[in-house]
């Protein structure tokens, strides 16, 4: 089985994370898929940005939840990275889905509702993905266990992943009890045993954030279903070289 190479926040080492330039680059580099993070605006528009706060990746301040989508348009989400990306905008999930619709990409939409439990985020995201008929190649993921359950309650068929960075010897059983179809784990939790346990439970396992060749090698050798990487081009070259 080929381990999928999923661009983490787009090709985020070479372009500002979670923006169109980072997604375009990942697509042109031929990544198998793209992972992105969703927060909710004051007017309930899901937008793609990792942090709850604007500070780290834009020239703004304050929380996403306190701005309307139109107001967010005033901020620059590229200059913090390099001047070359000045005036790059924060985009909505809908804009991203429209862009992805005609491209052969696997999508992982991560709901960022572990710090702020945004009301109705699950249904808003689910309905958009359903509307654009992308459910069959999308995984919805979250660190919030209750959110996994809510997502599965809309539609048993959708793939939902439980995300974790915490060690727990009953992790696979716990994720299964939530109704998750996949486990997305931080690299330091990765063991071949966990991969086997997931596969025996018919769950997929994907690992973040894998940027080093030695770590990629382990994930490829032990048949992880996917890796999230900031450097998809490097991962693709390496996968080709080891002929996985
Ligand atoms: O979805 C995998 C990974 O993105 C989870 O952590 O903080 O990079 O969103 P984070
Ligand atoms: Mg993420």
Automatic annotation (TrEMBL):
Gene3D superfamilies: Phosphatidylinositol (PI) phosphodiesterase. Pfam families: GDPD. One of its GO terms (biological process) is lipid metabolic process. InterPro entries: GP_PDE_dom, PLC-like_Pdiesterase_TIM-brl. Coiled coil: none annotated. Residues 3-239 form the GP-PDE domain. GO terms for molecular function: phosphoric diester hydrolase activity. This is Glycerophosphodiester phosphodiesterase.
């Amino acid at each position: 089985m080929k381990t999928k190479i999923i661009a983490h926040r787009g090709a985020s080492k070479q372009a500002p994370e979670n923006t169109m330039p980072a997604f375009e680059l990942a697509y042109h580099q031929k990544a198998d898929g793209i992972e992105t993070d969703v927060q909710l605006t004051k007017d309930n528009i899901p937008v793609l940005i990792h942090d709850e706060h604007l500070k780290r990746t834009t020239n703004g301040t304050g929380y996403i939840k306190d701005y309307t989508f139109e107001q967010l348009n005033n901020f620059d989400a590229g200059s913090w990275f390099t001047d070359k990306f000045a005036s790059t905008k924060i985009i909505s999930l809908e804009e991203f889905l429209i862009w992805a619709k005609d491209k052969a990409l696997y999508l992982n939409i991560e709901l960022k509702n572990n710090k702020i439990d945004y009301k109705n985020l699950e249904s808003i995201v689910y309905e958009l993905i359903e509307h654009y008929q992308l459910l069959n190649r999308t995984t919805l993921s979250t660190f919030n266990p209750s959110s996994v359950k809510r997502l599965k309650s809309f539609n048993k068929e959708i793939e939902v992943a439980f995300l974790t960075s915490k060690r727990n010897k009953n992790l696979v059983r716990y994720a299964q009890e939530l109704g998750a179809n996949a486990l997305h784990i931080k690299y330091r939790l990765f063991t071949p045993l966990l991969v086997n346990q997931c596969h025996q439970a018919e769950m997929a396992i994907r690992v973040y954030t894998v940027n080093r060749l030695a770590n990629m090698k382990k994930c490829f050798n032990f048949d992880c279903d996917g890796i999230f990487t900031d450097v998809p081009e490097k991962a693709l070259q390496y996968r080709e070289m080891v002929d996985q």
